[in-house]
Every structure is written in C-alpha cells, then in structure tokens.
Design goal:
The protein has 86 residues and is of the alpha+beta class. The chain has one domain (3-81): TusA-like domain (Translation Initiation Factor IF3, 2-Layer Sandwich), CATH 3.30.110. The chain has three helices and four strands. The N and C termini lie far apart (29 Å).
C-alpha cells in the first residue's frame, strides 16, 4: 500500500477549517502540525477559493508534504504529512 493510500485509510489527526478565513486556516494547520510527530498525517477540510490555493502551498513552504487533495461536497480534503523541521 502506498503512503497516500495509507493516509487515506487513516490520517493521524483531522481539522475541519470550513468557514475559517485566510490566514487563520493556515495558522491553525501549522499549529496542529507542530503538535504532531514526524511522519504523521493530518487531514484538513478547506473551502474552495483562497483556502485551497493558499494552505497547501504554505505548508509545503514550511517543509511538509501534501500527499493529495480531493473534492468533498463543497470543500476539499487535503492530506499533509508532517516532516521534520530544523
């Protein structure tokens, strides 16, 4: 089973950030990732528009890995793997 399939079967943590505006949705995602161990996977629900454009790019800029994103009703689910930061 690939890492992304494994992540889809059971992310370590989940955040529902629908209705949360930028940049608060990124800040909440970043703070949650900081509490997680390297290799753990966070599932984040984000609204269409700025959130789905900005949050994945911002977490990648922080050094984490976006494993995938999928449309879920009126939102998107983004899977993010926590990477070790120096």
């Amino acid at each position: 089973m690939s890492e992304s399939e494994n992540a889809l079967n059971g992310p370590t943590s989940e955040l529902d950030l629908r209705g949360v505006i930028c940049p608060y949705n990124f800040v909440k995602t970043k703070l949650k990732l900081e509490t997680m161990k390297e290799g753990e996977v966070l599932s984040v629900l984000l609204d269409d528009g700025d959130p789905i454009r900005n949050v994945p790019r911002s977490v990648e800029n922080e050094g984490h890995t976006v494993l995938g994103q999928e449309r879920v009703e009126q939102a998107y689910r983004v899977l993010i793997r926590r990477e070790e930061n120096d």
